[in-house]
Specification:
With about 90 residues, the protein is mainly β. The chain is built from no helices and seven strands. The chain has a three-stranded antiparallel beta sheet, with no helix packed on it. Strands 3-6 form a two-stranded antiparallel ribbon. It has a two-stranded antiparallel sheet with strand order 4-5. A hairpin with a 2-residue loop joins strand 4 and strand 5.
Length: about 90
């Protein structure tokens, strides 16, 4: 069943994590989905989870899923903010 599902290669879509210093002078990261296409993209599902080692211990964040209805051509949309501690994870 899964072998029957055709997964097409994704092109002209990017993800950017942008550091922003907030009003408390604390760095938070804003993760954006960027549509580099000349057409809108619709029905986007983004799944994220952090994992890695910190101080010799395995660390794993909860899994987050976001549904984005439409991203207009040549534009971007905020997916989620990330705290500075999570940036060091995969």
């Amino acid at each position: 069943m899964l072998k029957d599902i055709k997964i097409e290669e994704v092109e002209n879509i990017a993800i950017a994590a942008v550091p922003i210093v907030n009003e408390n002078l604390y760095t938070e990261w804003q993760v954006h989905l960027i549509n580099l296409k000349n057409t809108p993209i619709t029905g986007v599902i983004v799944s994220s989870q952090g994992y890695g080692n910190r101080n010799g211990e395995e660390v794993k964040t909860s899994q987050l899923r976001h549904f984005i209805d439409t991203v207009e051509p040549q534009s971007h949309i905020l997916i989620e903010p990330m705290i500075d501690d999570v940036v060091t994870l995969n």
